Backbone:
């Protein structure tokens, strides 16, 4: 059975490629025509080719607690790309740059003058409750005043087709290597589609990352020593750490490779002895960075690293403490943060968010809790959340109590219906929900990846896109329709 | 940019593990062939392979009978044997994974594929029919990896460490094979089995793919003294001990602070220079090889101390 677009269900969802049965969005016309001409054998062949490419390229992610301890799984990949028109993308890009620029000003302000609090825009008690605010960083400002050098923001589309920012990941966002590898796989599998479409390239990310990191070097030398600090091969994102180091020509190091000497400089142990390090792209969480300052038992980091950083002898990307803006309550303030620092309206909307500290919002949340998703301010990974439409009356009642008892600890959002895109499932094409994670680099300039990583929930009806829970990914094409 | 100590160590071990997998594949194949050529009453069997790889004890802890099926599975795929081909390839792959940013991408893909293919093909103990082909594939894939590295990796310090790993492992294996094969060679050579002695010496050469090269070099009937001198002292045959040591010495000339290691090497050369291969009786040959092995080990130790 070949692909029949008249059977493709688009009711109730905004689909990225198909607007109605048998009707493609303009950007997807060539693609849907092409796909409907494929035979079962073709589809099988493409699928096998992409599986083989992924296996031989060794594109993996690590899953914990599997039967063999922790093992590498092949990266789950869907061969139908997700397409976005360049014109629309340009607006998103501007919106992301604006957002990250404001967030960096915000973080720098929080650790220094706290003007935004003094001016009554951001309540100080919210800051006091923030788990990711590091008091150790007070009074410090990293080079260029930038804290979040690499940001991964999650975007979703609702039923109405609008892009919303779901969250900003400012600590150690991952996934960009899969964005790059997805493109490599597509080029191996579907070379002819690249002739039909003018697809903007993604390959220059590693060199942009390198330039951004090099710009942070405390020493003014032509080739600063840049390293990628990984927790090691058992980390779920180790593939990415190695990949990025390789692509940048930087050294991939673990904590033990580095040492801070009495001069408060960081060195790495080499076959010729110690060698000075200028910039560390760290993929280790704040609290594991330096056992002298944070968790004394941790062996992942480097004793003395914070000293070296605060002495200005080494740059850390992202800066410790930048996660303060990676917080759900801060998120709900981003439109105000943008206005406060930039004097502009936010280009990209947040998902509508009720701040329970506002009495009106609190009333609404209490009365409509069965329709809402309620999230605690300082948790991540979906812990302590209430998904109203899926919860029992008893759970609704419990959460009403929790929210009323501590309104400042909660936000609430309407339940979004994520957009879908056609996805191969058992040799049929069916709609599956997806999101998008672009990556934004900030130093002297701000750059955004062309598109980003599209994650797709492979299980019907599911909106869980995490790879560890059976999610997959798609190549994301920013397509220039004007030059076709 | 100077090389990280940990990375140097990983590349060195990558070289060793790949070489170990290849060598193990070679000796299994050669033993299979040898047994087909020997008369039934000469019971060489599979024990020597366990001795060559120093795995007799761990084998006996797991298996009761030393036979072709058990030993070949143990050496090819046994997960509890750390020097089985599969374990070596897995270790090579894990090492390659940690230095993916250093080695060419194609090589990572080759190592990864080699492991995946080997895992599928070697783990079926009953399948003897394809064993020769499967092992040959391992040898060839390994040669392809070596070739890709030679042709596409910058010949910098990392490459030096890789080659040192490969050559130290080779030196170790060459001496092991000589040692065990000479020890099991027929103790009382009488007229009847004399031709088979030649076959055994041929098998030693073949374990090291040295038969043809020996022929070209020596142009003589196969005999103990010449085989020994070829495998220990030849400077041009890649698996001869002297050659492997020269390679290590050559790599060291690029590296900083290598004096101690060079010193260990020169002691080994001394020993080799004074060897009386012609007059060495079986027992003293065994002692001599033992000394050489200790020497190889000292070179490895000195390397670790200096760089890792």
Residues:
């Amino acid at each position: 059975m070949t692909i029949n677009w008249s059977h493709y269900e688009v009711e109730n969802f905004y689909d990225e490629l198909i607007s109605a049965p048998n009707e493609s969005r303009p950007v997807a016309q060539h693609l849907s025509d092409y796909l409907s001409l494929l035979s079962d054998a073709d589809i099988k062949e493409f699928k096998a080719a992409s599986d083989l490419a992924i296996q031989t390229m060794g594109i993996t992610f690590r899953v914990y607690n599997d039967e063999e301890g922790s093992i590498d799984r092949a990266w789950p990949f869907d061969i139908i790309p997700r397409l976005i028109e360049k014109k629309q993308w340009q607006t998103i890009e501007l919106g992301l740059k604006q957002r990250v620029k404001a967030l960096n000003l915000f973080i720098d302000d929080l650790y220094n003058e706290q003007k935004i609090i003094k001016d009554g825009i951001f309540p100080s008690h919210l800051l006091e409750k923030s788990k990711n605010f590091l008091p150790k960083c007070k009074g410090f400002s990293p080079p260029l005043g930038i804290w979040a050098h690499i940001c991964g923001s999650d975007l979703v589309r609702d039923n109405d087709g609008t892009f919303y920012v779901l969250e900003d990941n400012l600590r150690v966002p991952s996934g960009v290597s899969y964005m790059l590898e997805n493109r490599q796989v597509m080029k191996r599998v579907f070379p002819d589609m690249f002739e039909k479409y003018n697809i903007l390239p993604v390959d220059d990310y590693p060199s942009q990352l390198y330039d951004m990191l090099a710009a942070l070097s405390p020493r003014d030398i032509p080739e600063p020593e840049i390293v990628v600090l990984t927790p090691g091969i058992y980390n779920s994102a180790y593939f990415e750490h190695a990949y990025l180091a390789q692509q940048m020509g930087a050294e991939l190091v673990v904590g033990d490779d580095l040492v801070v000497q009495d001069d408060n400089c960081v060195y790495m142990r080499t076959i010729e002895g110690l060698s000075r390090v200028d910039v560390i792209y760290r993929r280790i969480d704040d609290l594991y960075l330096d056992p002298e300052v944070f968790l004394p038992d941790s062996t992942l980091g480097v004793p003395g690293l914070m000293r070296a950083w605060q002495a200005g002898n080494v740059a850390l990307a992202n800066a410790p403490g930048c996660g303060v803006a990676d917080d759900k309550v801060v998120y709900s303030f981003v439109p105000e943060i943008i206005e406060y620092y930039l004097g502009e309206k936010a280009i990209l909307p947040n998902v509508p968010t009720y701040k329970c500290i506002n009495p009106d919002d609190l009333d609404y949340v209490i009365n409509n809790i069965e329709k809402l998703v309620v999230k605690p301010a300082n948790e991540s990974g979906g812990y302590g959340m209430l998904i109203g439409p899926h919860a029992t009356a008893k759970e609704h009642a419990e959460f009403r109590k929790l929210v009323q008892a501590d309104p400042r600890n909660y936000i609430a959002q309407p339940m979004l219906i994520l957009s879908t895109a056609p996805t191969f499932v058992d040799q049929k094409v069916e709609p599956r929900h997806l999101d998008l994670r672009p990556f934004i680099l900030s130093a002297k300039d701000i750059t955004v990846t062309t598109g980003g990583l599209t994650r797709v929930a492979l299980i019907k009806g599911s909106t869980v896109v995490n790879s560890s829970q059976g999610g997959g990914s798609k190549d994301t094409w920013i397509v220039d329709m004007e030059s076709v | 940019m100077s090389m990280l100590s940990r990375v140097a160590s990983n590349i060195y071990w990558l070289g060793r593990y790949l070489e170990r997998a290849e060598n193990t594949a070679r000796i299994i194949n050669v033993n299979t062939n040898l047994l087909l050529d020997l008369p039934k009453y000469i019971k060489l069997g599979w024990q020597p392979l366990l001795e060559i790889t120093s795995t007799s004890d761990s084998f006996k802890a797991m298996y009761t009978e030393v036979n072709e099926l058990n030993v070949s599975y143990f050496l090819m795929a046994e997960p509890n044997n750390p020097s089985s081909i599969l374990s070596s390839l897995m270790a090579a792959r894990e090492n390659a994974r940690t230095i993916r940013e250093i080695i060419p991408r194609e090589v990572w893909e080759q190592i990864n594929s080699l492991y995946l293919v080997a895992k599928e093909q070697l783990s079926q103990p009953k399948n003897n029919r394809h064993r020769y082909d499967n092992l040959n594939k391992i040898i060839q894939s390994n040669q392809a990896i070596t070739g890709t590295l030679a042709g596409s990796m910058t010949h910098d310090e990392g490459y030096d460490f890789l080659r040192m790993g490969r050559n130290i492992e080779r030196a170790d294996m060459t001496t092991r094979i000589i040692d065990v094969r000479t020890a099991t060679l027929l103790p009382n050579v009488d007229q009847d089995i004399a031709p088979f002695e030649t076959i055994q010496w041929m098998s030693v050469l073949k374990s090291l793919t040295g038969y043809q090269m020996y022929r070209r070099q020596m142009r003589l009937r196969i005999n103990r003294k010449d085989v020994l001198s070829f495998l220990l002292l030849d400077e041009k045959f890649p698996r001869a001990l002297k050659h492997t040591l020269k390679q290590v010495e050559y790599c060291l000339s690029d590296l900083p602070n290598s004096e101690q290691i060079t010193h260990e090497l020169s002691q080994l050369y001394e020993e080799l220079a004074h060897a009386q291969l012609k007059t060495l009786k079986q027992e003293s040959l065994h002692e001599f090889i033992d000394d050489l092995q200790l020497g190889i080990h000292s070179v490895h130790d000195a390397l670790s101390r200096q760089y890792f």
